[in-house]
Amino acid sequence: QVQLVESGGGLVQAGGSLKLSCAASGHSFSSSAMGWYRQAPGKQREWVAAITSTGNTRYADSVKGRFTISRDNAKSTLYLEMNSLKPEDTAVYLCAAGAGLGYYDYWGQGTQVTVSS
């Protein structure tokens, strides 16, 4: 059974930083493409960042230069380092895994990030 468990969310002031983690189990993490998405209340789910099995990364324009996605295959863990946070970054952040970028079969439950102004 595939499990993705996010952690690291919390309340932070604007301009602050947080680092999210997504611990994976039950599938071949090292060969999976991984992504981060976010969903704010009343809004559609939004793609944030992605990383291929070989470490190539992509970012949404809204977070480029502020967020960094990375992975540790030895620990089966995905990360999202978030700097210069803005109130509009407030959302539930979810990680996803699949065979290719944008083709995600598995999703975590999410971790709440709240940025106060």
In words, what does this structure look like?
This protein is an all-beta fold and 117 residues long. Helices cover 0% and strands 56% of the residues. It contains no helices and eleven strands. It has strands at 3-7, 10-13, 18-25, 33-39, 46-51, 57-59, 67-72, 77-82, 91-100, 103-107, 111-116. Strands 2, 4, 5, 6, 9, 10 and 11 form a seven-stranded mixed beta sheet that branches. It has a four-stranded antiparallel beta sheet with strand order 1-3-8-7, with no helix packed on it. Strand 7 and strand 8 form a beta hairpin. The radius of gyration is 13 Å and the shape is globular. The termini are far apart.
What is this structure, in a nutshell?
This protein is an all-beta fold and 117 residues long. It has no helices and 11 strands. The radius of gyration is 13 Å and the shape is globular.
